[in-house]
Amino acid sequence: MTERLRILVTGAAGLVGAEVTARLVAAGHQVTALVHNQPVVVRNDGTPLEPDAVTRLSGDVTKPRLGLPEAAYQALAADGLDRIVHCAAITDFGLPDEVYQAVNVDGTVHVLELARAAGVPLVHVGTAYVCGERDGLIRETELDEGQRLANAYEDSKFRAETLVHKAQADGVRAAIVRPSIVVGDERTGVVRDYKNIYVVLKLATEGKVRSIPGQYEARLDLVPVDYVADIITEVTHRFEEAAGRTFHAVGTPLTLRDFSDVMAEYPPFHVPRFVPPTSFDAQRLPRRERAYYERVMTLYESYFRRRMRFDDSHTAGLATRRPPADGQDFLRALIDHCLETGYLGAPPADATEVLARLNITGPDATSAANATGPTASDVNGAGR
Amino acid sequence: MTSSTSTPSLNEDETRSRVYAIVGAMAPARGATLADDTALIADLAYDSLRLIELTLALEEGFGLGELAQERTATVTTLGDIVRLVTEARRETEAWRETEARQAEAGR
């Protein structure tokens, strides 16, 4: 650990990338931070990294040579690096397929090209959800088990990881870290941006979505961002032990029953009802709830049916730190932080309240907002 | 396209000022100056959830049918919303006329 390594971190401004960058810098390594839209590396707690702590390179993983000028790329490839940590990825759901292909798949291709050209070990950050819709115990040694992948995100990360395996077969040295659903800090609950599961939590607790197709026995695996960054850092440091292996950076799985129980402890929160998917019909929802369901919840629906459990024996064997012991306590820490920042708990005025305040009633305002069932399908036809 | 007699039509200025009023009142950022090139996310701090609520407010406030996701997805500025609402209003009116005609023919 005393050896000073030259490390390239892609996606260094991202949630996980920034935390990894901060740890590598703190450990005394010489870090080159590849950044794209957001040039400043900001830690999860909102504090920016000192500008001269890293060498910042403005690039784009979707482009050949990572979008770097020829000279800068050659400098990295020709004995400029000891490790590459590939954190750059799109983790938002619901984006066009091309975006996942370009960033998650092509981006990995370009990173692998650099790893091959430079003869440098690669730490690839994947996702535990490359397991797709498999049930039961998911092992770190498993990738392609013929599983169905639920969305373009999972599909792209599955293909990226397959490419890493192929590159390993022809000589690139790599280790893979697979986080589950990355959320706030284990102790403080702090998270820099509210995405994915946070959005679901917000819609559910504000009562915007009251019934969700899913099973109370389904499990969601939430993992603290600081834990994920620790595991990636550890794998980077101890690459010789980690090479050729995969590490689940996962938390303590919570069933949807566990979620409901914790949500019910907070008086202002609505608690959604999980209904058997077979008896759920989105067309019967009121317009407002249907809008939220169709535009947001459908992206995550598959996660409310899965009962997988991630085995993390590789990680347990390598790292000293273990995930949160009590999943519900961790969820409370996450929710408490959301309440402190106002992300949860005090929803702004909804459409109807705002229109009333403005004294606006549309020509037949009520039909659009309150329509359900057959009326809603009439309205469906109107706008198209 | 002629407007139906049963639906009070807003002219372009009225549509614009109502869009401005709704978008401004729904915006997470307060006190921003509103213009056609005002960006919903960058200038008014809308996020994906607030944009859904805004869609509902526009549907309700203009008596429109459902605005399809494909159409709202490309909207980034106030001007885009004015155009979208103007278009959707025309479609809603045309649809109502057709309905009225069919109802008449069916009698």
UniProtKB/TrEMBL annotation, chain A:
According to the record, the residues making up region (Disordered) are 364-384
Which InterPro entries does the annotation name? FAR_NAD-bd (IPR013120), NAD(P)-bd_dom_sf (IPR036291), NAD(P)-dependent_oxidoreduct (IPR051783)
This protein is called Modular polyketide synthase
Report biased composition (Polar residues) as residue ranges: 367-378
Where does the source fall among the domains of life?
Bacteria
Q: Which GO terms describe its molecular function?
A: aldehyde dehydrogenase (NAD+) activity
Q: Which SUPFAM superfamilies match?
A: NAD(P)-binding Rossmann-fold domains
Q: Which organism is it from?
A: Streptomyces iranensis
Tell me which CDD domains the record gives.
MupV_like_SDR_e (cd05263)
TrEMBL record, chain B:
Q: Which domain of life is it from?
A: Bacteria
Protein name (Swiss-Prot/TrEMBL): Acyl carrier protein
Query: What is the species listed in this Swiss-Prot or TrEMBL entry?
Result: Streptomyces iranensis
Q: What is the lineage of its organism?
A: Bacteria, Bacillati, Actinomycetota, Actinomycetes, Kitasatosporales
